[in-house]
Amino acid sequence: MSDGSTEFTRLPETDAEREDPEQATREEVLEFWQDRFGVPAETFEGYSFWERGAGKLWLYRGRPPSPVDIEGLGMTFLRTRQEHWKPTLEAVQRFGDRASKNVIHLDEDAARAFVAGEDRELDWDGDWGYLVVTHDLAGEAEPAGVGLYVYGELRSQVPKGRRREV
């Protein structure tokens, strides 16, 4: 179990292996990506999931021993232990091209506003909640980041330090 400092603990594979009832399992993480975004579970073969602190999940390609006491391990991936799980910008930019559900595609002007951190009123007939936001880059739809769609508005979830005026 993570002590909330720098200790990384590998997620248990299933509920039967879980000691902390609040901790996510690998099975639940794979189901989340499949159910919410249509990203197949096979996408994450060869990766392990780690928790540092309460609900801050990291993704690592390979399997180092657990627990590990280091500052970083792979990439930040998902926030759990809250009402709605939230994928990170890094996770969506890395795996969002495999998403087939809850993907919203923005035109150039809306994409510029999104990466600058601006919220926009937008018509969307899909699910409310976190979305994979894409835009055209070199003629192909590319993931730009995570958006939160509620009450007819797409709210940019681009972290302040990563926002850009383009």
UniProtKB/TrEMBL annotation:
Stretches with biased composition (Basic and acidic residues): 10-25
Residue ranges constituting the DUF7122 domain according to the UniProt record: 4-74
Return the InterPro entries for the record. DUF7122, Nol1_Nop2_Fmu_2
Record's superkingdom? Archaea
Mention any Pfam family matching this sequence: DUF7122
Outline the extent of the rRNA small subunit methyltransferase F RNA-binding PUA-like domain.
111-164
Membrane-crossing segments per the record: none
According to UniProt, the name of this protein is: Uncharacterized protein
* Region annotation Disordered: where it falls in the sequence: 1-25
